[in-house]
């Protein structure tokens, strides 16, 4: 299906034969309110949009290998259930998308984790894009924006171009919640959108719509390049745990060390050309401020 030469046609046939819900099975108690027909219609619409976008995106830095392509397509197909949870006997619930990938499709855990990451990061990338639109020309981006985008890239790693595609689907469809909220699309909203027939899944690609989504992706990619963080998921930390502990005089690890390590990552994203010594000075100042604040509470 997703591994074949024409995944869109395979999905379309599943929907037309009314077996989409059997293949992408979700527990009935979880998917209440979203009919099998509506789920299949929404999934097909999103799959077509994702496929057309992947085919049209010719940027040299956004190459999609086989794994990236099928995970991106699968994340698009499962967007209608991105906000649904499946209870489990022990532990916290799993996402409905994770359940479908692991239990229904019998794909690997890495595929399910990738789909979850794409769904979780999509609204964050939408939020970053909106901030980019509000940036005046010639004004350096605030550190917060660079860090937000860098964190998205670090989470998705080589899948981050796929993350742009999934986020563009969320952003370009206001009925999915993409224009009015930073939350994943709701199942009920997607069902209504799918049945409204706003975009056909047959025939030639709607190139104006594809181009709008590509513009969204290019804006994020250009920002990452301009900020010097496009490859940040491959960076080595400026300071390791032992160096951080030595810098601030910590005797042992724990939550405080974890917070400092996270702060070091954020500083590096905000200052891609920064040095280890500059990072050390930043952490020392932050640690001193945290200690002073803690002392004030006592």
UniProtKB/TrEMBL annotation:
One of its GO terms (molecular function) is RNA binding. Keywords: RNA-binding, Signal. Residues 1-25 form the signal peptide. GO terms for biological process: tRNA 3'-terminal CCA addition. SUPFAM superfamilies: Poly A polymerase C-terminal region-like. This is CCA tRNA nucleotidyltransferase 2. It comes from Chlorella sorokiniana. The lineage of its organism: Eukaryota, Viridiplantae, Chlorophyta, core chlorophytes, Trebouxiophyceae.
């Amino acid at each position: 299906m997703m591994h074949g030469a024409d995944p869109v046609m395979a999905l379309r046939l599943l929907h037309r034969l009314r077996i989409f819900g059997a293949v992408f099975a979700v527990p009935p108690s979880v998917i209440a309110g979203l009919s099998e027909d509506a789920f299949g219609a929404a999934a097909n619409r999103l799959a077509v949009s994702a496929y057309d976008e992947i085919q049209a995106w010719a940027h040299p830095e956004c190459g999609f290998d086989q794994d990236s392509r099928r995970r991106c397509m699968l994340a698009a197909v499962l967007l209608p259930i991105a906000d649904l949870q499946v209870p489990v006997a022990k532990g916290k619930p799993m996402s409905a998308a994770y359940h479908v990938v692991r239990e229904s499709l019998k794909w690997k855990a890495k595929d399910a984790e990738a789909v979850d990451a794409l769904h979780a990061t999509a609204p964050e990338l939408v939020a970053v894009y909106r901030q980019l639109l509000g940036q005046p020309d010639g004004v350096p981006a605030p550190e917060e924006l660079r860090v937000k985008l860098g964190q998205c890239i670090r989470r998705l790693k080589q899948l981050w171009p796929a993350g742009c595609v999934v986020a563009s689907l969320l952003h370009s469809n206001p009925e999915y919640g993409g224009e009015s909220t930073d939350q994943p699309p709701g199942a009920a909203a997607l069902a209504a959108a799918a049945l409204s027939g706003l975009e056909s899944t047959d025939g030639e690609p709607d190139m104006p719509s594809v181009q709008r989504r590509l513009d969204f992706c290019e804006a994020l990619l250009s920002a990452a390049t301009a900020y010097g963080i496009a490859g940040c998921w491959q960076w080595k930390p400026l300071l390791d745990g032992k160096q951080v502990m030595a810098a601030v005089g910590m005797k042992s690890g724990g939550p405080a060390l974890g917070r400092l390590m996270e702060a070091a990552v954020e500083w590096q994203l905000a200052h891609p050309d920064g040095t280890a010594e500059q990072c050390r000075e930043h952490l020392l100042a932050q640690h001193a401020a945290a200690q002073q604040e803690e002392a004030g509470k006592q």
